[in-house]
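Researcher: Next entry in the queue.
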Amino acid sequence: MALTPEQRKANLRLALILATISISLGVGFVLKVLLTQGH
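Model: Structure for this entry, 39 residues:
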Protein backbone atom coordinates (compact mmCIF):
# COMPACT_ATOMS: atom_id res chain seq x y z
CA MET A 1 0.00 0.00 0.00
CA ALA A 2 2.28 2.75 -1.26
CA LEU A 3 1.24 6.37 -0.94
CA THR A 4 1.25 8.55 -4.00
CA PRO A 5 3.19 11.84 -3.81
CA GLU A 6 -0.15 13.68 -3.66
CA GLN A 7 -1.32 11.65 -0.67
CA ARG A 8 2.04 12.10 1.04
CA LYS A 9 1.84 15.87 0.49
CA ALA A 10 -1.72 15.99 1.83
CA ASN A 11 -0.74 13.95 4.90
CA LEU A 12 2.24 16.21 5.56
CA ARG A 13 0.07 19.32 5.29
CA LEU A 14 -2.49 17.84 7.66
CA ALA A 15 0.25 16.93 10.13
CA LEU A 16 1.68 20.45 9.99
CA ILE A 17 -1.76 21.98 10.52
CA LEU A 18 -2.49 19.74 13.51
CA ALA A 19 0.95 20.41 14.99
CA THR A 20 0.45 24.16 14.60
CA ILE A 21 -2.94 24.00 16.30
CA SER A 22 -1.67 21.92 19.21
CA ILE A 23 1.38 24.17 19.68
CA SER A 24 -0.88 27.23 19.65
CA LEU A 25 -3.18 25.71 22.25
CA GLY A 26 -0.21 24.70 24.40
CA VAL A 27 1.35 28.17 24.24
CA GLY A 28 -1.99 29.82 24.96
CA PHE A 29 -2.55 27.56 27.97
CA VAL A 30 0.93 28.28 29.35
CA LEU A 31 0.44 32.04 28.89
CA LYS A 32 -2.94 31.86 30.61
CA VAL A 33 -1.43 30.02 33.57
CA LEU A 34 1.48 32.45 33.81
CA LEU A 35 -0.77 35.51 33.55
CA THR A 36 -3.34 34.29 36.07
CA GLN A 37 -0.70 33.02 38.48
CA GLY A 38 0.43 36.47 39.57
CA HIS A 39 -3.05 37.66 40.56
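Model: Residues 1 and 14 are 20 Å apart (CA to CA).
Researcher: Noted, moving on.
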